Amino acid sequence: MASLALSFPPAAAKTPSYLSSSSSTFFSSSLSFTTSQSHSRNSVFASIKCDLGNGNPSIPIINERTLPKFLESARMEKSANRTNNNTRLKLFSGTANPALSQEIAWYMGLDLGKIKIKRFADGEIYVQLEESVRGCDVYLVQPTCTPTNENLMELLIMVDACRRASAKKVTAVIPYFGYARADRKTQGRESIAAKLVANLITEAGADRVLACDLHSGQSMGYFDIPVDHVYCQPVILDYLASKSIAAEDLVVVSPDVGGVARARAFAKKLSDAPLAIVDKRRSGHNVAEVMNLIGDVKGKVAVMVDDMIDTAGTIVKGAALLHQEGAREVYACCTHAVFSPPAIERLSGGLLQEVIVTNTLPVAEKNYFPQLTILSVANLLGETIWRVHDDSSVSSIFL
């Protein structure tokens, strides 16, 4: 019987290939963060102050030996206190985004747990933990990205393996939650797949879910277990703060009415920047038609904010409208770079000054284009995992 065996060795201080690309970078430490004592370690960036007028246009590439200052100091101070605490914490990676898992492990000062994942000739998935997790607090890092169903099934089997190996607690760390857009019925006789997936993860044996920038907040209510919602805004805000953009020239744009709350929160962090809204009408799935613009963007730098870019129809048509209405430059910021065809052709067409995404999903090198910037959320996720493990506040990170 043919099979594909995948196993993850202990963490090594090596920069993933996509981070060494000229089109990608870690986030820099241009923002001012306030720290406070929590448990045995310092809490990180309890408050955020952003002044785009004082930004530094030079963006360094952060390698595996350096961290942003607001996380570097906390990491070094915590390392001495972790020796006795991390023996009960285990971090495992699925096959969906091992590079992100490796970065998280490095920030936390841990080695990735040894796990064997293979696929039989008929497509069935086999998972075996190659080290004991009895009585441990286990965290499984696995975004349910393309191929969505296969990665979801792999996560469920990993959770089941941990539960049957007598893990004390199992937390599913899902940087990108697939099926999140199927969170309600828009027409008769439709399914609500987000609720179904939440039930599957719960029934598999997960005790907690940690997810990044869910498509809608109500998705947290679909789980019958605790959900920690990680907002990736600090990472993108920190990068934008390094841009030499005057605060009075900035306008934050929501690409649709449904994203107004997200864009408003983003604008508040950017010196309370003005807000504009693109009114769009969909004629079908993955098909968007821009109608008009609510707000003034003439002569301004427009920053479009969304949770994901899939086929890029919404973002590109919105950018075209913004240019038509007199915007000087248009930036697109999103957490999840789904990039389904023909997204790359659309995004590299010249309408966007820069496309800023994070590495919650792996971006293949063939999908790189000059305007693309990839920011890492590994430090943010690593800090969140430590706080959950220590029973410390998670929400204080985003205040």
What labels describe this entry?
399 residues, alpha/beta, Rossmann fold, 2 domains, seven-stranded mixed β-sheet, five-stranded parallel β-sheet, 9 helices, 17 strands, globular, disordered N terminus, ATP binding, ATP-binding
Helix-strand topology string: EEEHEHEEEHEHEEHEHEEEHEHEEH
Number of helices: 9
The main sheet comes to: 7 strands, mixed
Low-confidence stretches: 1-70
Q: Which band does the percent of strand residues land in?
A: 25-35%
Which radius of gyration do the C-alpha atoms yield? Answer: 21 Å
- Mean pLDDT, rounded to whole units? 82
**What's the total number of strands?**
17
Give the C-level CATH assignment of the largest domain: Alpha Beta
CATH topology of the largest domain: Rossmann fold
Q: Which oligomerization state do the chains in this entry correspond to?
A: single chain
CATH architecture of the largest domain: 3-Layer(aba) Sandwich
Silhouette: globular
Helix content: 10-25%
Structural class: alpha/beta
Description of the molecule:
- The structure is a single chain.
- The protein is an alpha/beta fold.
- The protein has two domains: 86-230, Rossmann fold (3-Layer(aba) Sandwich), CATH 3.40.50.2020; 233-376, 3-Layer(aba) Sandwich (Rossmann fold), CATH 3.40.50.2020.
- It has helices at residues 69-79, 98-108, 148-164, 193-204, 233-241, 260-269, 313-324, 343-347, 378-389; strands at 3-7, 32-38, 41-49, 89-93, 115-120, 125-129, 137-141, 169-174, 208-212, 227-230, 250-254, 275-284, 287-294, 301-309, 329-337, 354-358, 372-375.
- α2 (98-108) packs across α9 (378-389).
- The longest helix has 17 residues, at 148-164.
- The model is unreliable at 1-70 (pLDDT under 50).
